[in-house]
C-alpha cells in the first residue's frame, strides 16, 4: 500500500511551490537537488522549515519540493506556505498554531504593471519647462 502523502501549494509574487509531505526520516529534496544545495543560506532553510519546527520535529517527515518562478526569497516564502498548508491537511489541529504565526497567510503583493507614457509603474518622465 502507498504511504500517506499530503500536498500543499504555496505562492509568492511569481514563485509557485508544490510540497509533498510524507512521514519519513527528514530527507528533503528540492527540484531533484539536495535541500542544502538549492537553498545555501541557513536563514532560508530555517524559514522554510519553521512551520514543521513549530508543529512537530522536522526529522519525522520527508519533503519533496517542486518550485518554479520568481527569485530565491519568493520561492522560500512560497515553500513555507506550501508546507503549512500540507500540515493543516495532515491534521486540522495544526491550523490555530500556524495561523497565529502568520504561516497560512498568502502574501498577495505583486509587481505593479508598467503604464504607457511613463518609464515605470509610477515614475514619470522628467519634466522640462523649457
Automatic annotation (TrEMBL):
<dbReference type="InterPro" id="IPR020568">
    <property type="entry name" value="Ribosomal_Su5_D2-typ_SF"/>
</dbReference>
<keyword id="KW-0689">Ribosomal protein</keyword>
<protein>
    <recommendedName>
        <fullName>Small ribosomal subunit protein uS9</fullName>
    </recommendedName>
</protein>
<dbReference type="InterPro" id="IPR023035">
    <property type="entry name" value="Ribosomal_uS9_bac/plastid"/>
</dbReference>
<feature type="region of interest" description="Disordered">
    <location>
        <begin position="109"/>
        <end position="130"/>
    </location>
</feature>
<dbReference type="InterPro" id="IPR000754">
    <property type="entry name" value="Ribosomal_uS9"/>
</dbReference>
<feature type="compositionally biased region" description="Basic residues">
    <location>
        <begin position="111"/>
        <end position="130"/>
    </location>
</feature>
<comment type="similarity">
    <text>Belongs to the universal ribosomal protein uS9 family.</text>
</comment>
<dbReference type="GO" id="GO:0005840">
    <property type="term" value="C:ribosome"/>
</dbReference>
<dbReference type="InterPro" id="IPR020574">
    <property type="entry name" value="Ribosomal_uS9_CS"/>
</dbReference>
<dbReference type="InterPro" id="IPR014721">
    <property type="entry name" value="Ribsml_uS5_D2-typ_fold_subgr"/>
</dbReference>
<keyword id="KW-0687">Ribonucleoprotein</keyword>
<dbReference type="Pfam" id="PF00380">
    <property type="entry name" value="Ribosomal_S9"/>
</dbReference>
Amino acid at each position: 500500500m502507498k504511504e500517506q502523502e499530503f500536498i500543499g501549494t504555496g505562492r509568492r509574487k511569481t514563485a509557485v511551490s508544490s510540497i509533498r509531505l510524507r512521514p519519513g526520516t527528514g530527507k528533503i529534496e528540492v527540484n531533484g537537488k539536495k535541500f542544502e544545495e538549492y537553498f545555501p543560506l541557513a536563514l532560508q532553510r530555517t524559514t522554510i522549515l519553521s512551520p514543521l519546527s513549530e508543529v512537530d520535529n522536522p526529522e519525522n517527515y520527508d519533503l519533496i519540493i517542486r518550485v518554479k518562478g520568481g527569485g530565491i526569497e519568493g520561492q522560500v516564502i512560497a515553500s513555507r506556505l506550501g508546507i503549512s498548508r500540507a500540515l493543516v491537511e495532515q491534521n486540522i489541529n495544526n491550523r490555530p498554531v500556524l495561523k497565529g504565526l502568520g504561516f497560512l497567510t498568502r502574501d498577495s503583493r505583486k509587481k505593479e504593471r508598467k503604464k504607457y507614457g511613463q518609464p515605470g509603474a509610477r515614475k514619470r518622465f522628467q519634466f522640462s519647462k523649457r
